[in-house]
Design a protein that fits this description.
abc type-2 transporter like fold; mainly alpha; about 65% helix; 4 strands; about 400 residues; four-stranded mixed beta sheet; single chain; 18 helices
């Protein structure tokens, strides 16, 4: 039975590739070791999930019980950590210029007096918004804290003037805002950055690993052996060549899913089967794109260099870090050349949003052009694999 199987061209090519993987530390590392290590590093870097304890300086010019209370409440805000209590705004500005703090809160010298007299003091807040993530977190945290303090003081003053607590609260907060945060209510960056970075790393290893595996046939001059084992059928040669890697990369994606769904607690409101099928299509798409790149260049080093840039740009244009709806038209069109863009839409749809399958039909169909592009490259890659002038290139 085993002898009969070895006569099948596809099985022969797969057995040959399995031996090549086992004999190559580079292939073992890039397909089994490096992806898992990269996943663990990213998870460790973002293990807190939310931004906390960003350095803040408070310039207290009032030196009253109220200003001390405000300082303590700012320090108690999860996103802030008051590292410096200063008397000079110029000193605080110098610290911000030196990068020692990310925000300055200036409490004026008439803070308590104005509040007692039912006046409105001006509390100045300066935020370093060079990093928009940190800047946004600080703005939200400080605004919420100072608004809470302001409302609390207004309530106390109103009660002292004879109003009931209920009347004082209604006066301090005449408009009630009922806010519902959808899909990521805790502002957890693990649901945001890690959700995008882990699959991006997987994509990098899938694409570059596939380029390296096939490109070594050019570099080592073994392409004719590959074609011969497949009985001169390029589809059989490439299928047998890539299928062992498809299996290994799919195992990497399974490990990624465990990290995202179990370790980090990313919610799964949709279909796991849909996610798994999308990951399979993602792997096939990038493997066939690797074939297309090598068909165009017939050069391992050049394909690896171009592939590195191509895969890393996917995160930028995926709509995760900057919303697609706000992108210029050219950027929106550019985002369509990455399979990662469409896979991310499916993953977010089925994890955070729990949308019906009809909502992910378009992203699934979007994989077809990438698969067809790789399949159409088969005749060209066969000519180059079969021609000695393309062998032994760096």
């Amino acid at each position: 039975m085993l002898n009969n199987l070895t006569k099948i061209p596809l099985i022969r090519v797969m057995r040959r590739e399995t031996r090549r993987i086992a004999d190559s530390w580079v292939l073992i590392f890039s397909t089994m070791v490096a992806p898992v290590v990269a996943f663990l590093i990213i998870i460790w870097l973002f293990s807190d999930g939310v931004v906390r304890d960003l350095p803040v300086a408070v310039v207290d010019m009032d030196h009253t019980a109220l200003s001390s209370r405000v300082t303590r409440m700012v320090d108690a805000t999860p996103v802030c950590k008051v590292l410096f209590r200063l008397n000079s705004a110029d000193e605080a500005q110098k610290m911000m210029d030196e990068g020692k703090i990310d925000a300055i809160v200036i409490l004026p010298n008439d803070l308590e007096r104005k509040i007692v007299n039912s006046d409105t003091p001006a509390v100045a807040v300066y935020i370093n918004n060079t990093n928009v993530v940190k800047g946004g977190a600080l703005k939200s945290g400080l605004y919420t804290t100072l608004s809470t303090i302001s409302a609390g003081v207004k309530v106390q003053v109103a009660i002292k003037k004879g109003q009931t607590p209920a009347q004082a609260i209604e006066k301090a907060r005449p408009v009630k805002v009922n806010v519902h945060l959808l899909f990521n209510p805790f502002g957890n960056y693990s649901y945001f950055l890690v959700l995008g970075l882990l699959p991006l790393l997987a994509v990098v290893f899938i694409f570059l690993g596939s380029v390296y595996a096939l490109g070594m046939e050019f570099k080592e001059g073994t392409a004719s052996e590959l074609i011969k084992l497949a009985d001169q059928k390029i589809g059989v040669a490439l299928a047998g060549k890539m299928l062992p890697y498809t299996f290994l990369f799919f195992m990497d994606m399974m490990i990624m899913n465990i990290f995202l769904l179990k370790t980090l607690g990313t919610p799964l409101h949709g279909s796991l089967i849909t996610i798994l099928f999308s990951e399979f299509l993602l792997i096939i798409s990038y493997q066939l794109l690797a074939v297309l790149f090598l068909k165009l260049t017939a050069n391992l080093r050049l394909s690896l260099s171009l592939g590195s840039a191509y895969t890393m740009m996917a995160l930028t244009f995926s709509g995760l870090t900057f919303p697609s709806m706000a992108m210029p038209l050219m950027a929106k069109l550019f985002s369509l050349i990455f399979p990662y863009t469409f896979w991310l839409q499916i993953f977010i749809s089925q994890t955070l949003r729990g949308e019906p399958l009809s909502e992910v039909l378009y992203p699934f169909l979007a994989f077809i052009p990438f698969i067809l592009g790789g399949l159409l490259a088969f005749p060209g890659i066969k000519r180059k694999l079969s021609h000695p002038k393309y062998w032994f290139r760096e």
